[in-house]
Specification:
Structural class: mainly alpha
Number of helices: 21
Helix content: over 70%
Largest sheet: none
Order of helices and strands: HHHHHHHHHHHHHHHHHHHHH
Distance between the termini: 28 Å
Radius of gyration: 23 Å
Strand content: under 5%
Length: about 525
């Protein structure tokens, strides 16, 4: 199987699983918005969830995955399955002990941590206390998802992507169930939502066990922490930890600055970013996760030409998927939030403010996609230092722009600052990778983007008038059905116009994808007959 086919197949599997998890995530956010609105309680909840989420990426999904997957892949293909599984057990044991200690310290130090990231909440009586209580409940979630990230990396190297990518569904469903059924028994009710986070984290980890047993990967204690491969993973992780820390400080800085703005600003940014992450999670994260094992194999084999080819192919896929998604989010921001969130607790002004945040975030989708593919290229080359320095400068840029723009545009300025910083980060990554590998051959990406301009313009010309057919301020069941019909019509027409326009403009990636779908449908038809 070619690397391109392998990347496409893995991306498709991950994308399908992630789409389901994002749909349940949207359901979760709709439930939170309709039940708790955007204000005192939700500001406290989202701020409290910042800490375990930050450390989850700090210890697990970022630096650990980036260091573990290339090393595990190399061991598996060079020294065999048994040695790779043994190293996986050692890493699991070490991570288990480290995360148990981190969680204990996090719960004990919660009051100081919460005050550090939500200092502006001190002006509102009881808001810091509620944030602290929510953080103490949710902090052990970090333990479960960190172990999950390690097991996910092992399964991805073995070619299994679906079930790990599906695990966030359990988190979303647990949060929805606790919010709906348990919130009447708690005071304040939002404590039930925090309990759902903890329960969901445990379920995410437990659902991996059947597939782990099928692959013969049942983690058990192994305290040989001085194994050379483990030490190599630790060395690769150290600069990665700094890089992830810098990225997450960006998030914390945004939340900290938002805590000084009017009540609801933290919630507006959270809801806007969550919808922004919908296409990001379905395609960008899936592609980045799929391309890392392939690039790691090419880097280990010294295949520089193959590595550049995989990079170019992945970047063109990113352009084809993210440019229409970004434009669609900007055009449909207010209709989407009106349809799903507008209620007595989440009024039209909250809808409008959240939509403005999403509009400011949306252009960054393309630049984020490019960065998410280029960074694994550095990781495949076992260079985790360069992205760290670039992340550091991105942090400074985001903080500076955030302080400046929030003076004029409030929470929208903070969202716009992150988009501009993401653009700067993208340019620096391309420059650094070019210095490392020489010419990257990005003319294919530039040509692909130019060919996409006419379909995108036609898509916008079709979508905007269709969205004008509904009154997005209206509430009620009949209004909801009408808004849903108009939104579905606009999205469907936009997708159709974009697809056909891309084919007419000779966008090869869209044509190849259509031919693949047509071949599969033809094959199924033959089998059926």
């Amino acid at each position: 199987m070619s690397e391109k086919h392998s990347i496409t197949r893995a991306t498709g599997i991950l994308g399908a699983a992630t789409l389901l998890s994002r749909i349940t995530g949207l359901l979760r956010d709709v439930v939170i918005g309709r039940m708790f609105g955007a204000g005192f309680a939700t500001d406290a909840f989202f701020m409290a969830f910042t800490l375990p989420n930050l450390l989850r990426r700090f210890f697990a999904e970022g630096s650990l995955t980036a260091a573990f997957v290339p090393t595990y892949s190399e061991l598996y293909h060079r020294e065999g399955r048994d040695e790779a599984i043994r190293v996986g057990n050692i890493c699991f044991t070490l991570l288990f002990v480290v995360m148990a200690v981190v969680v204990l310290l996090g719960v004990l130090a919660s009051p100081w941590l919460v005050r550090a990231i939500g200092y502006g909440f001190g002006d509102t009586q009881g808001k810091l206390l509620l944030t602290d209580l929510l953080n103490r409940i949710m902090f052990p979630y970090l333990f479960f998802v960190s172990l999950l990230a390690l097991l996910t990396g092992s399964l991805n190297v073995l070619g299994h992507y679906f079930l790990p990518a599906l695990s966030p569904v359990m988190l979303n469903l647990a949060m929805v169930a606790c919010a709906v059924f348990l919130s009447p028994f708690f005071h304040p009710p939002i404590l039930a939502l925090a309990l759902g986070v903890l329960l969901g984290g445990a379920l995410q980890l437990l659902m991996q066990w059947p597939i782990l047993r099928r692959y013969g990967i049942v983690p058990h204690p192994d305290f040989h922490w001085r194994h050379p491969a483990v030490r190599r993973i630790a060395r690769l992780m150290l600069p990665g930890l700094v890089g992830v820390a810098i990225y997450q400080i960006n998030v914390v800085v945004g939340r900290l600055l938002a805590s000084f703005l009017e009540e609801g600003s933290v919630s507006y940014l959270y809801y806007g970013q969550r919808l922004f992450e919908f296409p990001q999670g379905v395609f960008i994260v899936s592609l980045a996760q799929a391309v890392l094992p392939a690039m790691s194999r090419q880097a280990a084999a010294g295949d520089a030409a193959g590595l550049k080819d995989s990079l170019d192919f992945s970047l063109r896929l990113i352009a084809v998927a993210t440019l229409p998604a970004a434009l669609g989010l900007m055009l449909c921001a207010l209709p989407i939030f009106s349809l799903f969130f507008l209620s007595a607790a989440f009024d039209y002004e909250a809808v409008r403010q959240t939509a403005l945040a999403l509009i400011a975030y949306a252009p960054g989708l393309f630049f984020l996609g490019i960065a998410r593919v280029i960074v694994p290229t550095f990781y495949a080359l076992q260079d985790t230092r360069t992205p760290v320095w670039i992340s550091f400068w991105t942090l400074l840029l985001n903080a500076g722009l955030g302080v400046l723009l929030m003076q004029f545009f409030g929470h929208v300025g903070l969202a716009l600052a992150l988009t501009l910083a993401t653009f700067g980060n993208c340019l620096l990554l391309i420059w650094a990778l070019r210095r490392k590998l020489g010419r990257l051959g990005l003319r294919g990406l530039a040509g692909c983007c130019l060919r996409l301009v006419p379909p995108l313009l036609v898509m916008a010309a079709v979508v905007v008038p269709l969205l004008g057919l509904a009154d997005w301020r209206s509430m009620g069941t009949s209004a909801a059905f009408h808004k849903a019909g108009v939104l579905m019509l606009a999205v469907g027409a936009g997708a159709l116009v974009y697809g056909w326009g891309s084919l007419l403009c000779g966008v090869r990636e869209v044509r190849d994808g259509w031919n693949l779908v047509r071949r599969k449908l033809t094959r199924r038809g033959r089998h059926a007959s």
